[in-house]
């Protein structure tokens, strides 16, 4: 004998069961989305670290060798001061370019989990509307 049907609660229980199933599917979808975005976020962070290390190492080696070559070339000439300041200016320009590239990449990585936040925001709006 179905007591819930006799008491008129069958439709109520069925409706709540459907809501629970829908919620479970939504949680599974959001979890999958979170995992995918986490993988992308980790990849971008690893890329930032790798690019930072590579940029730092290559900048130091290249500019040290280049600076030495320029200073040796102009050492016995009257333009030695101009050459020294030119080398220093080049160091500053290359440093600024590396920092700008790093800043740009870090800003892109700062938008991690945007899709998950957006989806959860829509879910929250739906829940508030239903209540």
From TrEMBL:
Matching Pfam families: Phage_holin_3_6
InterPro entries the record matches: Phage_holin_3_6
Domain of life: Bacteria
Transmembrane intervals: 44-71, 83-103
Keyword tags: Membrane, Transmembrane, Transmembrane helix
Entry protein name: Phage holin family protein
Species of the source: Simplicispira hankyongi
């Amino acid at each position: 004998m179905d007591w819930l049907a006799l008491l008129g609660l069958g439709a109520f229980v069925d409706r709540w069961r459907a809501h629970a199933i829908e919620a479970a599917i939504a949680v599974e979808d959001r979890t999958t989305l979170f995992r995918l975005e986490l993988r992308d976020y980790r990849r971008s962070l690893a890329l930032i670290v790798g690019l930072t290390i590579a940029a730092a190492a290559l900048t130091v080696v290249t500019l040290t060798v280049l600076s030495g070559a320029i200073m040796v070339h102009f050492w016995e000439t009257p333009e030695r001061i101009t050459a020294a300041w030119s080398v220093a200016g080049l160091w500053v320009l290359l440093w600024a370019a590396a920092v700008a590239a790093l800043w740009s990449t870090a800003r892109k990585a700062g938008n991690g989990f945007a899709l998950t936040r957006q989806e959860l925001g829509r879910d929250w709006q739906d829940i508030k509307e239903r209540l």
